[in-house]
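Honest question from a wet-lab person: if I give you the sequences of every part of a complex, can you actually get the arrangement of the whole thing, not just the pieces? Trying it with mine:
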Amino acid sequence: MQDVSPDEGAYNGLDDEELMRRLAYRDLQAFRALYKRYGNLVFSASLRVVRDTQIAEDMVQEIFLRIWRKPESYLPQRGRFATWLTSVTRNRAVDEVRSRNRRFRYEAASPEEQEREFAGPERNDPALTAELSDQRRLILAALAGIPAEQRRIIELAYFGGLTQQEIADRLSQPLGTVKTRIRLGMQKLRAALALEVR
Amino acid sequence: MRKEKLDCQAVMDLLDAYALGAVDKAEAKEIEAHVADCVRCWDELNRAQRTAALLVLSVPVQEAPAALGERIIGMARDERRLSPFGQGWLQRLGLGRPVAVGAVGVAGLAALVFSAFLQVQMNDLRDENGSLERQVAAADTELAQQQQVQAVLAASDTQKLPIIPTRSSADVTGDYTWSAAEGIGMLNLRDLQPLSDQQVYQMWFTFGSQALPAGTCVPLNGRCDFIVYFGSIRRWPDGVGVSVEPAGGSVMPNKPWFLFARFEGTQ
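Yes, you can. This is the full assembly:
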């Protein structure tokens, strides 16, 4: 049975929330449209955290099938779908790393490597929708505007899944310094992304 | 010594770290307890979490393997096919806000919540890695749905509406049976003609000129059985229609209706 209909284009025009609403009655085309929109992002975000292609693929599969089976787990009144999905992805990937005790692989990445991972190209990315590509440019610019030491600590917390105390231990810095750098860095990001986080 | 609760300033100082997942469990508990009662800190936390979520977009985006997408879509398709009522599947209307309509009251809502609970439990049982597990899950789901069907048929307020065929579908027979108390309706169609691989029958509730999709079906042995949970529909529909649509269903019905019936004074 074919699941692609001549109306596929119409689905691509529906917003995320409408596609999620349609999953409530098992609309496979809506599911396909969501995957097309976010599959690359979920894969890349998972890969960034778990650093293993096979595990990242497993993450993508698990996250999307969970959406398919339990679309009600997304509550539109609590925020945008993209925000929810990226949070779910990051949290699930970090849990996976913790359960596999793979954190040391991440931490083995050199500062230069981590720097490259943050400061990606500022061009349109064909693997993202236009809206996500615009948001990506904004976040990259915002990250480039904060000091490297703040950026690195934010990175270790968010993608490395480390607590403030663990970061302090890892970097041999006082806990107070780590806390301050997180707070200052996030404040600057929030200010730079004001329109996006309202 | 008894530990002091965190005040707003202390919580504010930790919200960014919390949003990044960088506080320990004890701190997280304290923050969660505080923001549950503090609107100001709750708002601030939401902003911090939205900022943190945007960090995902900083990763270099790579194209996921094409085979991965095909596999995931294929698994979703398989699950839909393995769902109960032959090739039909559970028609869920997750409209979220429970607003009573007419006689659809507490009992209907309870039925909706219970059925959703059952569905969640059974979804948890499904394991895409083995066909046996999938069949077990499908069987469990079917059992639960059959219990719900029995509940509708046994309800004291069960009503039935014959579905009136249009000229082009004169041989089709069917009816829509529902219980407002249970919050469940069933549309049963017989003697349906097979469709092409690119088509499905789609059920709709109508509200004047508007139509709300309620599920699609590929007929098996000429039969389609739709189950709908309508406990949270905000107003009573004035009719129920069936159209022929592209596979996957449509956002708007393709008219004229294949089948249509109007509720007249029934609620």
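Two things worth pointing out. DSSP finds twelve helices and no strands in chain A. Chain A touches chain B through 88 residues (CB under 8 Å).
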